[in-house]
Protein backbone atom coordinates (compact mmCIF):
# COMPACT_ATOMS: atom_id res chain seq x y z
CA UNK A 1 0.00 0.00 0.00
CA UNK A 2 1.23 3.49 -0.91
CA UNK A 3 -0.04 5.90 1.78
CA UNK A 4 0.84 9.10 -0.15
CA UNK A 5 -2.78 10.00 -0.99
CA UNK A 6 -4.10 9.41 2.54
CA UNK A 7 -1.21 11.37 4.08
CA UNK A 8 -1.59 14.19 1.55
CA UNK A 9 -5.35 14.60 2.06
CA UNK A 10 -5.02 14.48 5.86
CA UNK A 11 -2.14 16.99 5.77
CA UNK A 12 -4.20 19.37 3.60
CA UNK A 13 -7.18 19.19 5.97
CA UNK A 14 -4.92 19.74 8.98
CA UNK A 15 -3.44 22.84 7.32
CA UNK A 16 -6.94 24.19 6.61
CA UNK A 17 -8.22 23.55 10.14
CA UNK A 18 -5.09 24.96 11.80
CA UNK A 19 -5.31 28.13 9.69
CA UNK A 20 -8.97 28.53 10.73
CA UNK A 21 -8.08 28.16 14.41
CA UNK A 22 -5.19 30.65 14.13
CA UNK A 23 -7.57 33.19 12.63
CA UNK A 24 -9.98 32.72 15.52
CA UNK A 25 -12.48 30.51 13.73
CA UNK A 26 -13.78 27.04 14.49
CA UNK A 27 -13.34 24.05 12.13
CA UNK A 28 -16.75 22.80 13.24
CA UNK A 29 -18.41 25.85 11.65
CA UNK A 30 -17.93 24.45 8.13
CA UNK A 31 -19.56 21.10 8.88
CA UNK A 32 -23.09 22.10 7.92
CA UNK A 33 -25.28 19.30 6.60
CA UNK A 34 -27.12 21.12 3.76
CA UNK A 35 -24.00 22.33 1.88
CA UNK A 36 -22.25 18.98 2.43
CA UNK A 37 -25.20 17.11 0.93
CA UNK A 38 -25.46 19.52 -1.99
CA UNK A 39 -21.76 19.57 -2.86
CA UNK A 40 -20.94 15.87 -2.53
CA UNK A 41 -24.17 14.36 -3.86
CA UNK A 42 -24.56 17.09 -6.47
CA UNK A 43 -21.00 16.50 -7.70
CA UNK A 44 -21.59 12.75 -7.84
CA UNK A 45 -24.82 13.28 -9.77
CA UNK A 46 -23.15 15.58 -12.28
CA UNK A 47 -20.33 13.05 -12.80
CA UNK A 48 -22.89 10.27 -13.24
CA UNK A 49 -24.78 12.33 -15.82
CA UNK A 50 -21.57 12.82 -17.81
CA UNK A 51 -20.72 9.13 -18.12
CA UNK A 52 -22.09 5.62 -18.21
CA UNK A 53 -23.72 3.89 -15.26
CA UNK A 54 -20.98 1.23 -15.21
CA UNK A 55 -18.39 4.01 -14.80
CA UNK A 56 -20.17 5.29 -11.69
CA UNK A 57 -20.55 1.77 -10.28
CA UNK A 58 -16.79 1.27 -10.71
CA UNK A 59 -16.11 4.48 -8.76
CA UNK A 60 -15.93 2.56 -5.47
CA UNK A 61 -13.20 0.26 -6.78
CA UNK A 62 -11.31 3.25 -8.19
CA UNK A 63 -11.56 5.04 -4.84
CA UNK A 64 -10.20 1.99 -3.05
CA UNK A 65 -7.40 1.67 -5.60
CA UNK A 66 -6.39 5.32 -5.11
CA UNK A 67 -6.17 4.95 -1.34
CA UNK A 68 -4.75 1.43 -1.07
CA UNK A 69 -3.17 0.74 -4.46
CA UNK A 70 0.51 -0.03 -4.82
CA UNK A 71 2.91 -1.12 -7.54
CA UNK A 72 5.51 -3.87 -7.23
CA UNK A 73 9.05 -2.43 -7.34
CA UNK A 74 10.21 -2.63 -10.95
CA UNK A 75 13.67 -3.87 -9.98
CA UNK A 76 12.13 -6.83 -8.12
CA UNK A 77 10.07 -7.67 -11.20
CA UNK A 78 13.22 -7.66 -13.33
CA UNK A 79 14.88 -10.06 -10.87
CA UNK A 80 11.91 -12.44 -11.15
CA UNK A 81 12.05 -12.39 -14.94
CA UNK A 82 15.82 -12.98 -14.94
CA UNK A 83 15.39 -16.03 -12.68
CA UNK A 84 12.83 -17.40 -15.12
CA UNK A 85 15.21 -16.73 -18.01
CA UNK A 86 17.97 -18.66 -16.22
CA UNK A 87 15.67 -21.63 -15.64
CA UNK A 88 14.42 -21.60 -19.23
CA UNK A 89 17.98 -21.47 -20.58
CA UNK A 90 19.11 -24.37 -18.39
CA UNK A 91 16.09 -26.66 -18.60
CA UNK A 92 14.05 -25.42 -21.55
CA UNK A 93 10.89 -23.37 -21.89
CA UNK A 94 8.60 -26.19 -20.73
CA UNK A 95 10.37 -26.22 -17.35
CA UNK A 96 8.70 -22.89 -16.60
CA UNK A 97 5.36 -24.64 -16.04
CA UNK A 98 6.47 -25.61 -12.53
CA UNK A 99 8.08 -22.20 -11.91
CA UNK A 100 4.80 -20.46 -12.78
CA UNK A 101 3.31 -21.66 -9.50
CA UNK A 102 5.56 -19.19 -7.67
CA UNK A 103 4.79 -16.27 -10.00
CA UNK A 104 2.54 -13.70 -8.32
CA UNK A 105 2.06 -11.27 -11.21
CA UNK A 106 -1.03 -12.42 -13.20
CA UNK A 107 0.11 -10.66 -16.38
CA UNK A 108 3.53 -12.33 -16.23
CA UNK A 109 1.85 -15.67 -15.58
CA UNK A 110 -0.44 -15.21 -18.59
CA UNK A 111 2.49 -14.29 -20.84
CA UNK A 112 4.53 -17.26 -19.69
CA UNK A 113 1.61 -19.59 -20.37
CA UNK A 114 1.31 -18.23 -23.92
CA UNK A 115 5.05 -18.75 -24.45
CA UNK A 116 4.94 -22.30 -23.04
CA UNK A 117 1.98 -23.08 -25.30
CA UNK A 118 4.16 -22.27 -28.30
CA UNK A 119 2.57 -18.97 -29.30
CA UNK A 120 4.57 -17.13 -31.95
CA UNK A 121 6.57 -14.22 -30.46
CA UNK A 122 4.89 -11.61 -32.68
CA UNK A 123 1.43 -12.93 -31.90
CA UNK A 124 2.30 -13.15 -28.19
CA UNK A 125 3.42 -9.52 -28.22
CA UNK A 126 0.24 -8.48 -30.05
CA UNK A 127 -2.01 -10.24 -27.52
CA UNK A 128 -0.24 -8.80 -24.48
CA UNK A 129 0.08 -5.29 -25.92
CA UNK A 130 -3.66 -5.30 -26.66
CA UNK A 131 -4.26 -6.05 -22.97
CA UNK A 132 -1.99 -3.16 -21.99
CA UNK A 133 -3.90 -0.81 -24.31
CA UNK A 134 -7.24 -1.97 -22.88
CA UNK A 135 -6.01 -1.36 -19.33
CA UNK A 136 -4.70 2.08 -20.25
CA UNK A 137 -8.08 3.08 -21.70
CA UNK A 138 -9.98 1.75 -18.67
CA UNK A 139 -7.67 3.61 -16.28
CA UNK A 140 -8.02 6.80 -18.30
CA UNK A 141 -11.81 6.59 -18.00
CA UNK A 142 -11.58 6.00 -14.24
CA UNK A 143 -9.30 9.02 -13.83
CA UNK A 144 -11.63 11.12 -16.01
CA UNK A 145 -14.48 10.66 -13.52
CA UNK A 146 -12.37 12.05 -10.67
CA UNK A 147 -11.08 14.98 -12.72
CA UNK A 148 -14.64 15.61 -13.89
CA UNK A 149 -15.81 15.74 -10.27
CA UNK A 150 -12.98 18.17 -9.62
CA UNK A 151 -14.43 20.41 -12.31
CA UNK A 152 -18.06 20.14 -11.21
CA UNK A 153 -17.58 20.56 -7.44
CA UNK A 154 -16.69 24.30 -7.35
CA UNK A 155 -19.67 25.16 -9.57
CA UNK A 156 -22.01 23.04 -7.44
CA UNK A 157 -20.62 24.93 -4.45
CA UNK A 158 -21.47 28.26 -6.08
CA UNK A 159 -25.02 27.00 -6.65
CA UNK A 160 -25.20 26.25 -2.93
CA UNK A 161 -23.99 29.75 -2.10
CA UNK A 162 -26.62 31.32 -4.38
CA UNK A 163 -29.31 29.22 -2.69
CA UNK A 164 -28.01 30.40 0.69
CA UNK A 165 -28.01 34.05 -0.39
CA UNK A 166 -31.60 33.73 -1.56
CA UNK A 167 -32.41 32.59 1.96
CA UNK A 168 -30.50 35.62 3.30
CA UNK A 169 -32.56 38.00 1.18
CA UNK A 170 -35.73 36.39 2.50
CA UNK A 171 -34.66 37.34 6.04
CA UNK A 172 -33.60 40.98 5.58
CA UNK A 173 -36.20 41.94 8.15
CA UNK A 174 -34.16 40.10 10.78
CA UNK A 175 -30.71 41.80 10.79
CA UNK A 176 -29.51 39.83 13.80
CA UNK A 177 -29.58 36.60 11.73
CA UNK A 178 -27.93 37.93 8.56
CA UNK A 179 -24.31 37.39 9.60
CA UNK A 180 -24.88 33.74 10.45
CA UNK A 181 -26.90 33.14 7.26
CA UNK A 182 -24.31 34.80 4.99
CA UNK A 183 -21.48 32.78 6.56
CA UNK A 184 -23.47 29.60 6.10
CA UNK A 185 -24.15 30.48 2.45
CA UNK A 186 -20.43 30.60 1.64
CA UNK A 187 -19.74 27.21 3.25
CA UNK A 188 -21.01 25.49 0.08
CA UNK A 189 -18.46 27.33 -2.08
CA UNK A 190 -15.74 26.43 0.41
CA UNK A 191 -16.59 22.72 0.25
CA UNK A 192 -16.85 22.82 -3.54
CA UNK A 193 -13.39 24.31 -3.98
CA UNK A 194 -11.92 22.28 -1.11
CA UNK A 195 -13.23 18.91 -2.30
CA UNK A 196 -12.11 19.60 -5.88
CA UNK A 197 -8.54 20.60 -5.04
CA UNK A 198 -7.88 18.44 -1.98
CA UNK A 199 -9.72 15.27 -3.00
CA UNK A 200 -11.02 14.78 -6.56
CA UNK A 201 -8.25 16.33 -8.69
CA UNK A 202 -5.41 14.75 -6.66
CA UNK A 203 -7.17 11.37 -6.81
CA UNK A 204 -7.50 11.66 -10.59
CA UNK A 205 -3.79 12.46 -10.82
CA UNK A 206 -2.98 9.48 -8.56
CA UNK A 207 -4.95 7.12 -10.81
CA UNK A 208 -3.09 8.39 -13.88
CA UNK A 209 0.25 7.88 -12.13
CA UNK A 210 -0.67 4.36 -11.00
CA UNK A 211 -1.76 3.53 -14.54
CA UNK A 212 1.53 4.81 -15.99
CA UNK A 213 3.58 2.69 -13.58
CA UNK A 214 1.47 -0.45 -14.05
CA UNK A 215 1.43 -0.19 -17.85
CA UNK A 216 5.19 0.42 -17.90
CA UNK A 217 5.70 -2.76 -15.86
CA UNK A 218 3.41 -4.71 -18.19
CA UNK A 219 5.50 -3.55 -21.14
CA UNK A 220 8.59 -4.62 -19.20
CA UNK A 221 7.04 -8.09 -18.78
CA UNK A 222 6.34 -8.32 -22.52
CA UNK A 223 9.98 -7.52 -23.34
CA UNK A 224 11.17 -10.08 -20.78
CA UNK A 225 8.92 -12.89 -22.04
CA UNK A 226 9.94 -12.33 -25.65
CA UNK A 227 13.62 -12.54 -24.62
CA UNK A 228 12.96 -15.70 -22.58
CA UNK A 229 11.15 -17.24 -25.53
CA UNK A 230 14.11 -16.42 -27.77
CA UNK A 231 16.51 -18.14 -25.35
CA UNK A 232 18.50 -14.99 -24.66
CA UNK A 233 21.35 -14.97 -22.17
CA UNK A 234 19.96 -14.12 -18.69
CA UNK A 235 22.59 -11.44 -18.13
CA UNK A 236 21.65 -9.84 -21.43
CA UNK A 237 17.97 -10.04 -20.44
CA UNK A 238 18.76 -8.28 -17.16
CA UNK A 239 20.70 -5.52 -18.94
CA UNK A 240 17.94 -4.99 -21.50
CA UNK A 241 15.18 -4.81 -18.91
CA UNK A 242 17.09 -2.56 -16.52
CA UNK A 243 17.76 -0.19 -19.41
CA UNK A 244 13.97 0.26 -19.65
CA UNK A 245 13.63 1.30 -16.00
CA UNK A 246 13.49 5.00 -15.05
CA UNK A 247 16.64 6.47 -13.44
CA UNK A 248 16.89 5.83 -9.72
CA UNK A 249 14.79 2.65 -9.74
CA UNK A 250 17.68 0.28 -10.45
CA UNK A 251 19.54 -1.25 -7.55
CA UNK A 252 23.12 -1.98 -8.43
CA UNK A 253 23.98 -5.61 -7.91
CA UNK A 254 27.36 -7.32 -7.94
CA UNK A 255 27.51 -10.02 -10.56
CA UNK A 256 28.58 -13.38 -9.25
CA UNK A 257 32.07 -14.30 -10.30
From TrEMBL:
Its main location: membrane. It holds the Pfam family MotA_ExbB. InterPro entries: Flag_MotA_CS, MotA-like, MotA_ExbB_proton_chnl. It is found in: Cell membrane. The chain crosses the membrane at residues 5-22, 28-49, 145-169, 181-201. It is a multi-pass membrane protein. The keyword Transmembrane applies. The keyword Membrane applies. Keywords: Cell membrane, Cell projection, Cilium, Flagellum, Membrane, Transmembrane, Transmembrane helix, Transport. Residues 101-219 form the MotA/TolQ/ExbB proton channel domain. NCBIfam families: PRK09109.1 (NF006583). Belongs to the MotA family. This is Flagellar motor protein. It comes from Dactylosporangium maewongense.
